[in-house]
Design goal:
Membrane topology (chain B): Multi-pass membrane protein
Organism (chain B): Nocardioides cremeus
InterPro entries (chain B): NADH_UbQ_OxRdtase_su1/FPO
Shape of chain C: globular
Strand content of chain C: 5-15%
Helix content of chain B: over 70%
Subcellular location (chain B): Cell membrane; Membrane
Oligomer: heterotrimer
Largest interface: A-C, 29 and 32 residues
Number of domains of chain C: 2
Distance between the termini of chain C: 60 Å
Radius of gyration of chain B: 19 Å
Shape of chain B: globular
GO molecular function (chain B): NADH dehydrogenase (quinone) (non-electrogenic) activity
Order of helices and strands of chain C: EEEHHHHHH
Structural class of chain B: mainly alpha
Chain lengths: ~200, ~300, ~180
């Protein structure tokens, strides 16, 4: 009885290890692809795929909530980021190939150094032995940790982030999509160039 | 061995159920748009036969990889959503986080619909993609807060626990705002009815415009499958899951899912597509605060009931 | 790097409303589209999805459609475009009954639907406005025709979707001059 359970634990451990390495490799490979591909959409969604693989790795560490939230938030963020990239980049959104890197060599240098530093840190640091045992419900433990003692921080950070996003967009666009229609969206939909042309015709 | 067999039959069952839900949604939608009964039921198979034979038509400089990948990924999202639904006591994909997984899957639709619009390298497709994201932000936040309500009341993110916690008073009955916001979100991620602007006819069907042949088939079918899958997830969330007299629980889940699918698709088919800039404002300024209030009410009830 | 991937020239900058570069695109509409006056061609310049500039080209052959029929046809087309299929079919039924100024119940119900859609901003104000005046025969299609410049002014500044709705609603006023043929 005990041998059977040991064998099955070992074999599942093996499977989990393989899956974890697969996730890790996909995450890194997709991260590299971000700089290799030559289109904004591909770069964005390569990054999204990298984050999804990271979420998968977290799931395998039995941090289910963190894993699924990483997938949820990152796909959402990348979808929105693609819009801003296409909107604010100097290049137009047609599928014109364009390089995704600025100052190529320095970027590669910085990226490699950072990766090696963080990676070697993760591998070489003497991790402490586990003391105690994990909470039976890690999701609940996480919620308590974030919400109980840090509730005030969370409540402040949320509005500040929203305000930053809204103000950032407003400051970066001198005239937005719906300015032309007035506050109640009931004005004749005209912007300066078209408005001037209409005056000329009269 | 027995486990593998069980998993295989489970997977086959989920595929079949997704298919039936999609067909139900399509038939009901067709009835609502004025087709007669028999014609409406046969609409889906006819379209299938037509599109399968249609020759694939490409646009210039299309991003084929992302375009095809996104289009063919929408149906699997619907299948996975259906797999989350607990039939009796367990779903095909059980877990303590079913509610969060459902939310994550509907977020994946953001990426795929935008990419379907982007990949074609066409103006109308891209316009549709942008419309979808504007709309998605506006329906997703009410949808997320709507998902909070049943989870809060049941004290769990497990769909089976949420379903079991409802007793005789379904959550739909005392959380009507959350229920409505959820259903609106379902119409949003299936791009149908009042939230169909990203595929609106006045913009040459937007994200769908350049799709042809099998690619068009899978995306069009996925819209109905997503509607059906969203309705199926609403059963454990809001409609008491397997609870019901006389019949076995699994039958009740299926019945409720099919009825809700048909009703939601019918309503969607009756309503015109709303223009995005007119829809976004009420979603942000009216629906979102109402859903947050709904969560507050549920929270107070939960605390008071302790 | 060639600046015309796949033979399509890249979009250029223009004197634009928001100061963002590179978002002008040349986009043709017509001559054949669903729910679109046959033969009408619009050469538009787009800023994103907003039509900034329109050049009109249209066929010269007049059609002889009674004003009331043309008006109800416009209603049906507009309703079809927003996906209101049941009511579009009802509008077509009214059209096929050769309506006069005195409407039967069917026409009245469709008009009530139009009013409701206008209240909920499903249709732009100008669309329901012109449809109402066409149905009341307060504008005479044979005298109040829109010339090319007027049509361009009408459409510029609207987004792609609203342009389709506006064209569908104004279709009865776009017919080439056919004196005396406007009345049914």
């Amino acid at each position: 009885m005990s041998t059977v359970s040991t064998v099955s634990t070992v074999s599942t451990m093996g499977l989990v290890d393989v899956a974890f390495w697969a996730c890790a490799l996909v995450a890194v490979a997709m991260g590299v692809l971000v700089f290799v591909v030559d289109s904004m959409a591909r770069a964005t969604y390569a990054l999204a795929a990298s984050f999804v693989a990271t979420g998968g790795a977290l799931l395998l560490m039995q941090q289910s909530y963190l894993g699924v939230v990483v997938v949820l938030m990152m796909v959402m963020e990348m979808a929105v980021m693609a819009v801003y990239m296409v909107m604010f980049m100097g290049m137009n959104p047609a599928l014109m190939p364009m390089s995704m890197v600025h100052s190529h060599r320095a970027a590669i240098g910085v990226a490699v150094v950072t990766f090696v530093a963080l990676g070697s840190g993760a591998v070489l640091v003497p991790w402490p032995e586990r003391r105690g045992s994990p909470s039976p419900d890690v999701t609940e433990a996480l919620g308590t940790a974030i919400m109980e003692s840090h509730m005030l921080v969370m409540m402040v950070v949320g509005p500040v982030m929203v305000a930053t996003i809204v103000v950032g967009v407003l400051l970066s666009s001198s005239r937005t999509r719906y300015d032309r229609m007035g506050d109640d969206l009931d004005q004749p939909a005209l912007d300066p160039p078209a408005l001037e042309r209409r005056e000329e015709r009269r | 061995m027995a486990e593998a067999l069980e998993a295989t039959t489970g997977a086959a069952g989920v595929l079949l159920l997704t298919f039936v839900l999609a067909w139900t949604a399509s038939a009901s939608y067709a009835v609502a748009t004025g087709r007669s009964g028999g014609d409406a039921v046969l609409h889906a198979p006819r379209e299938m036969a037509r599109l399968l034979r249609q020759r694939r038509r490409d646009t210039i400089s299309a991003d084929r990889l992302l375009w095809r990948l996104a289009g063919w990924s929408l149906l699997p999202v619907a299948v996975l959503l259906v797999a989350l639904v607990p039939l009796e006591d367990a779903a095909l994909l059980t877990g303590s986080l079913g509610v969060v997984w459902a939310n994550t899957l509907d977020i994946l639709v953001w990426a795929f619909v935008w990419l379907v619009g982007w990949g074609a390298n066409s103006v109308v497709g891209l316009v549709g993609g942008y419309r979808f994201l504007a709309l998605a932000l506006a329906y997703e936040l009410p949808l997320m807060f709507a998902l909070v309500a049943p989870a809060l009341a049941a004290g769990s993110l497990d769909l089976a626990v949420v379903a079991g916690a409802q007793g005789s008073l379904w959550y739909a009955a005392w959380m009507p705002v959350a229920f409505v916001a959820y259903l609106l979100g379902v119409l949003g991620f299936s791009v149908l009815g009042p939230l169909a602007a990203p595929a609106g006819r006045e913009s040459a069907e937007g994200v769908l415009a350049e799709l042809s042949g099998p690619d068009a088939l899978v995306v069009r079918a996925a819209r109905y499958a997503l509607l059906g899958a969203g309705a199926a997830v609403a059963v454990p969330l809001f409609l008491g899951g397997a609870s019901g007299p006389w019949l076995p629980g699994a039958v009740w889940v299926l019945l409720k899912a099919l009825l809700l699918t048909a009703a939601l698709a019918w309503v969607a088919g009756r309503l015109p597509a709303l223009r995005v800039h007119r829809l976004v404002e009420p979603l942000w300024t009216v629906l979102l605060p109402l859903v947050v209030l709904q969560d507050l009410v549920v929270g107070i009830v939960v605390v008071a009931g302790r | 790097m060639e600046m015309a991937p796949g033979g399509i020239p890249l979009a250029e900058g223009d004197d634009d409303r928001d100061g963002l570069e590179m978002d002008v695109l040349v986009h043709p509409l017509g001559p054949l589209l669903d729910h679109w006056p046959g033969g009408l061609e619009l050469h538009t310049r787009l800023h994103g999805d907003v039509v900034a500039h329109v050049e009109v080209q249209r066929p010269a052959s007049p059609t002889h459609v009674p004003a009331a029929v043309a008006a109800w046809d416009a209603v049906a087309r507009v309703l079809s475009l927003v996906g209101d299929d049941v009511w579009a079919a009802r509008a077509r039924m009214v059209r096929d009954q050769h309506p006069g100024p005195e409407l039967d119940g069917g026409g009245g119900r469709v008009r009530a639907r139009l009013a409701r859609l206008a209240r909920h901003h499903v249709l732009p104000h100008s669309v329901t406005d012109v449809l109402g005046r066409l149905l009341d025969e307060r504008i005479d299609a044979s005298t109040h025709r829109l010339d090319d410049a007027a049509l361009a002014s009408l459409l510029e500044g609207h987004d792609l979707g609203d342009v389709r709705l506006l064209v569908a609603a104004h279709a009865p006023l776009l017919e080439p001059s056919a004196a005396g043929a406007g009345r049914g």
